[in-house]
Amino acid sequence: MKALIVLLITVIIAVTGGFVLLNRSQNRQETTQTPVNTSTPIPDEKAIPAGRQVDIKASFKIVTNGTTRIFTDSKYHNKSKDVYIQLPDPGIVYVKKKGITWDDFFKTLPMKLTKDCLTTGTGQTFCTGESGTLRFFLNAIEDKDLLDREIKDGDKILIEFK
Question: Which fold is adopted by the domain 45-161?
């Protein structure tokens, strides 16, 4: 009977420890993302001032070594009147002026992007070389000249380093 009680206590301690470790792991993953500032009102397209209605929408995604980059921090939002992203969906690019290229868009953000290197807003650098390759995709087709392309309505781009 004494052995059964000891075994039961051991199982309870092991299960509790497992839950604590799992919870800590999930909390660490959640804290690696930039917190969203909920105190600032979130504009929607209808709230955009007259003369700034969206003409072109495109989407972008950046993945480095399997990690999808997020752009929820306000330092990335509404940096230009001609091309910008907003908090409600920071993966959507809004273009207000014809002739805007992907390079024009990325130059508005606090990061640096060339055909060979990406330096993120947090200062991480990913350059084509021994550690991986920086690749550009436009509408699921690899395009080494993506940065020079004009942003078109419905474009979907992926920038990937692996």
Answer: Ferric Hydroxamate Uptake Protein; Chain A, domain 1 (2.170.130)
